[in-house]
Request: fold
Amino acid sequence: QQMKGYGGVVSIEVDGNYIAFAEAIASQHPSVIYLAESLGGVESLLTHPATMSHGYLNAKERAAVGIKDNLFRLSVGIENVNDIIHSLGKALKAAR
Reply:
């Protein structure tokens, strides 16, 4: 009853320095996207499966299930879409 239709989770593989991408997201003030292990809030949340939800697996095991080191999952929240796009753009620029 609570959830109908599609969700707002997007998978992203960062082409470049994925650590710089995550650091750029985490260091933005004011924060628009939060680096967090949860995907269930009203705010935009970014998770890094290789170190969060699948951090208990070694690199070979993660690869076997399709979890690359540069993979992120973004749960889109209720923030203004232009703010989300701007935040992601700054982080992608840092990853270059």
